[in-house]
Amino acid sequence: MSRHRSNAPLRTAVVGTGSIARSSHLPALRTLAAEGRTEVVAAVDVDERAVRAFAGEFGIPHASTDLDAALADVRPDLVVLCTPPAVHREQSAAALRAGAWVWCEKPPCPSLADYDAVQAAEKGGEGDPYASIVFQHRFGSGARHVRRLLAEGALGRPLVAHCQTTWYRDAAYYAVPWRGRWAAEGGGPAMGHGIHQTDLLLDLMGPWSEVRGMAARLVHDVETEDVSTAQVRFADGALATVVNSVLSPDEISRIRIDCERATVEVTHLYGYRNADWRITPAPGVPEETAARWRDFGPDEPSSHLAQLRALVGDIEAGRRHPTSGQGGRRTLEFITALYKSAFTGAAVRAGDIAPGDPYYTELHGGAPGWAPAGSPKEEDRA
C-alpha cells in the first residue's frame, strides 16, 4: 500500500532533466503544486552538472545521479520519467518497488515484454501504486466531448476513420546517437511520433481486431523505419487507415471519423484546443442537434497538465488511471502488430503476439533488413 495521505500533496521526483521535463512536465507539476496537489522534492539525472543546475533553477531540494538512492532517501509518492525508453522498464520497476506511482513518457517501453514486466512489478492491490503512460491527447476537452458522443451513440456507428501523423525530421534530428535505433528509441515514427494520435484513435474507436501494415526506410540512415502505413479493422467492423511519417514538410496531426450521422475531425500539430475540432452532420440531421454536438463546453487543451490533473485525481481517489495497465498496453500492442505485419507481410490480429513470438521481445522481430546488424536473431535467420 502507498504511503501517500490523500489530503497531502504528492511528493514527486522528476527523473531526466532534458527538454521534455523542462517544457512539459515541470510546468504541469508546478501548476498543481500551486493548487496544493503536488510537490517536486527530487530531480534525478545521470549528468550531475545537469541535475544540479535543474534543481537549483527550480528550487528542488534533492538532486541525485542515482535513482535507487533518491528513492530510498526521498521516498516520493510519484515518479515522473522523462528518460529515453530503453531505461523505462528498470526505472518504472524500481519506483514501483519503492512504493511510488509512475507517470512515464512515451514510448512506454521498447517491447510488450518490457511493458508486461513493469505491470508484474505492481503489487496489484486496491489503492496500490501503478505505472501510467503519458498519452495526453486523451485528456483535452475536445476528446472528452467526442468520446461521450460516440459512447452514447449520438453520432451513430463509426464506419471509416483516418489517423495521420505526418511530421518532418531532418538529419540533425537523427544525429542524436540514440535516435533511430531500436534498442534506444524503441521504434521509428509509428512508435516515437505517431503513438499519440494512434492512442487517441484507439481511445475513441474502441478495440481493434486486425492490422495490415507497411513500413519503409526512404530517406534517413537509421535502423528503424521513417514512414509507415496501416489498414485497421475494429472489433465493431469499422475500418481505418493510419499513416506515420517524419518525411513530410507540411506537418500535420489529424484524426477523422465518419459515423452514420456525422463526420468528426480534429486537425492540429502537437496539441489541440476545442477550435481544432469540427463536426459535420449528415444530411437530414436537425440543426439544433448539430448545434448541441458542436458545443464542446469550456476549453481545456490537450496537454501534460490536463493529463497530470486527471492522474492526480485518480491517485487521490484510489482509481486506476486510463493509461495504466491494459489501458496503456493496447496502444503498444497495436504498434507492435503494425511492425510485425509490415515486416512479415501478414495480417496480425489482436492477441496474436504473446511470449515466444519474436515480436513480443523486440519490435523488429529479428526481421532481415530491419534487425540491427549482428543481432542474434538476424544471424539465426540469415
Assigned CATH class of the largest domain? Alpha Beta
Structural class call reads alpha/beta
- Determine the number of helices (DSSP H or I, runs of at least 4 residues): 15
Task: Give, in spatial order, the strands making up the sheet with the most strands.
Answer: 13-12-11-7-10-9-8-14
Rg, rounded, reads 21 Å
Averaged pLDDT: 95
Describe the protein.
The protein is of the alpha/beta class and 382 residues long. It folds into two domains: 10-133, Rossmann fold, CATH 3.40.50.720; 140-300, Dihydrodipicolinate Reductase, domain 2 (2-Layer Sandwich), CATH 3.30.360.10. It has 15 helices and 14 strands. It has helices spanning 19-34, 48-58, 67-74, 88-97, 112-121, 141-152, 171-174, 182-185, 189-192, 195-205, 287-293, 304-317, 326-344, 358-361, 376-381; strands at residues 10-15, 38-44, 62-64, 78-81, 101-104, 131-133, 158-168, 208-216, 227-234, 239-245, 247-259, 262-268, 277-281, 348-349. An eight-stranded mixed beta sheet has the order 13-12-11-7-10-9-8-14. A six-stranded parallel beta sheet has the order 3-2-1-4-5-6, sandwiched between helices. Helix 6 (141-152) runs parallel beside helix 10 (195-205). It starts with 9 loop residues before the first strand and ends with a helix. Residues 363-382 are annotated as: Disordered.
